[in-house]
Design goal:
Immunoglobulin-like, mainly beta, 3 helices, 6-stranded antiparallel sheet, Aldehyde oxidase GLOX, 7-stranded mixed sheet, globular
């Protein structure tokens, strides 16, 4: 169910919300998928997560709250005279989780990465920016080491950021650079690495100042949502406003309509946002056309929610709405939909099938220390284009509130961790203790009833597993039960997830040229690589074969 809203009264909006919510709840079921606890404790709370091309996950937290529950290896300690809790700290605040073995090892994070941001470079290195205190302007990196197990964080002390980046957002660009936008009291953006010939190292973006609400702690424009569009420009959303931005000329190309409703959508009234899958099928008929691009934003909080929760312990109901904006339309308008329940601090994770999972968060309050109650245990599946798009899924057993995260991993599961709504680790807090556990949500397509329909990739017939721009490549796969016309190829960019925003998350549905049977139960699909650097920024992607709505496990390919 969807409705377009233009100049509607608040009373009319309320009636629509009530009507649609009742309809959705009556028609929803809670079947679909299941949960598995992978680890009771990984030693830290998973505030930030990034999947790497060697099938390991970099996970990290703050460093300024005291000791974690995992020691640094080799009896090592970290000395930092600027640390606000422990000058000498022998515990780790980051771990590397191995998906294949369900094991983890400690990593050494030397400066405070609290509420920081990140992106993968074209070579697959995690470029990590900003944080708090001694981490305000820090630039860090983590490079995978598939052949050994000794890689660790590297701090680039001679290449700091130009200004403080606390609660900023990142996006990899077509040229392989990373743009870093905003942060608390930072109304600017910059590029990493810096452009050597630029007269300035950062640029002022008044939009960031105009969208900030006046009360400190309740700015409602932190962690702005960034999405690279197929034309190479940047969609930026903050508070309730959004723009099309040419970052090469520091120019706003257009202001999009205000999202309907009173709700604020960015930290601490935290919603989540995705760029819905880009469909590249049939775009090359004589000349290449750009795919349609649609942004979706779900959840958030009403004005004053942060202050009421923080000062008076009054927890307003969160937003129930999602808004979709087809930004490539000539005159785009928001299309509003109603979720089965309210959510603040949701995570939105795109699946290789093109569907979307909304999970984590709370039904009341806002982001911030102990500012939310009533965790939402039921994930929701959203099917774009469906007449009844929302479906309740199997509930989690662990609530995930402030400082939790989620990522899609190559076998099709969703990895979920974190939740620490307290200033320090508090395992006795009632009812929401600090969570060090790690769970996995298994979508319905991983059920045994779909095994005959699940493809298994054998080879990628491309040099060095490279999906080159505009060129054909082939993938061979096994399949027990083939259904005609049901094969697709998707590329999924792994996200850097923190604070309900999966930065750089991207799903591309490739143009399939041919599917042929090459042996008994053996098939070959020929697909065309992405058309441009703007459609698919260079880097490592998870490649899935999707057959009859059931994805294979992914293999990693490099788009370049």
């Amino acid at each position: 169910m969807a409705f377009k809203i233009k100049n509607a009264s608040p009373f009319f909006l309320l009636l629509l919300l009530l009507q649609f919510t009742m309809t959705l709840q009556e028609g929803s079921t809670s079947t679909g998928g299941h949960w598995v606890q992978l680890q009771r404790s990984i030693g830290i709370s998973a505030m930030h997560m990034q999947v790497m091309y060697d099938n390991k996950v970099v996970i990290f937290d703050r460093t300024d709250f005291g000791p974690s529950n995992i020691s640094l290896s080799g009896h090592r300690c970290r000395f930092n005279p600027r640390d606000l809790a422990l000058k000498l700290d022998c515990t780790a605040h980051s771990v590397l989780y191995d998906l294949a073995t369900d094991t983890f090892r400690p990593l050494t994070l030397r400066s405070d990465a609290w509420c920081s941001s990140g992106a993968l470079t074209a070579s697959g290195t995690l470029l990590q920016t900003g944080g708090f205190n001694d981490g305000y302007t820090k630039l860090r990196s983590f490079t995978p080491c598939p052949s050994h197990n000794t890689c660790d964080w590297l701090e680039h002390n001679n290449h700091n950021l130009s200004t403080s980046r606390w609660y900023a957002s990142n996006q990899i660009l077509p040229n392989g650079k990373v743009i870093v936008v905003g942060g608390r009291n930072s109304f600017t953006y910059e590029f990493v690495p810096k452009n050597q010939n630029d007269a300035s190292s950062f640029w002022f973006l008044p939009f960031l100042k105009l969208t900030r609400d006046p009360n400190r702690g309740e700015e409602n424009n932190l962690y702005p949502f960034l999405h690279l569009l197929p034309d190479g420009n940047l969609f930026i959303f903050a508070n309730r406003n959004s723009i099309l931005f040419d970052y090469t000329k520091n120019k706003i190309l257009r202001n999009f309509p205000l999202i309907p409703g009173q709700e604020k959508r960015n930290y601490p009234s935290t919603a989540s946002s995705v760029l819905l899958p880009l469909n590249l099928t049939g775009l090359t008929n004589g000349q290449t056309r750009l795919p349609e691009a649609e942004v979706m934003i779900c959840g958030g909080a009403y004005p004053g929610a942060y202050s009421l929760a923080n000062k008076l312990r009054i927890f307003l109901e969160a937003s129930r709405t999602c808004g979709r904006l087809k930004v490539t339309d000539e005159n785009p308008e928001w299309v509003m939909e109603v979720m089965p329940m309210p959510r603040v601090m949701p995570d939105m994770i795109l699946l290789p099938t093109g569907d979307l999972i909304i999970l984590n968060g709370a039904m009341n309050g806002s982001a911030g220390w102990e500012n939310a109650v009533n965790p939402v245990l039921h994930p929701v599946m959203y099917k774009p284009g469906s007449a009844d798009p929302f479906k309740l899924l199997a509930p989690a057993s662990t609530g995930r509130l402030y400082h939790s995260s989620a990522v899609l991993v190559p076998d099709g599961r969703v990895l979920v961790g974190g939740s620490n709504p307290h200033r320090v680790y508090d395992f006795r807090a009632n009812p929401y203790p600090t969570e060090l556990s790690m769970d996995a949500y298994y979508p319905e397509y991983l059920g045994v009833e779909f095994e005959n329909l699940k493809p298994s990739i054998l080879t990628v017939e491309a040099e060095n597993n490279t999906a080159s721009y505009g060129r054909l490549f082939a993938v061979t796969f096994e399949l027990k039960e083939y259904r005609e016309g049901g094969v697709g190829v998707t590329l999924v960019a792994p996200s850097f997830t923190t604070h309900s925003f999966a930065m750089n998350q991207r799903v591309l549905v490739l143009d399939v040229v041919a599917v042929q049977e090459v042996a008994k139960f053996g098939y070959k699909v020929v697909a065309r690589g992405p058309p441009s650097l703007a459609v698919a920024p260079p880097g490592y992607y998870m490649l899935f074969i999707v057959h009859a709505g059931v994805p294979s496990a992914a293999v990693w390919v490099q788009v370049k």
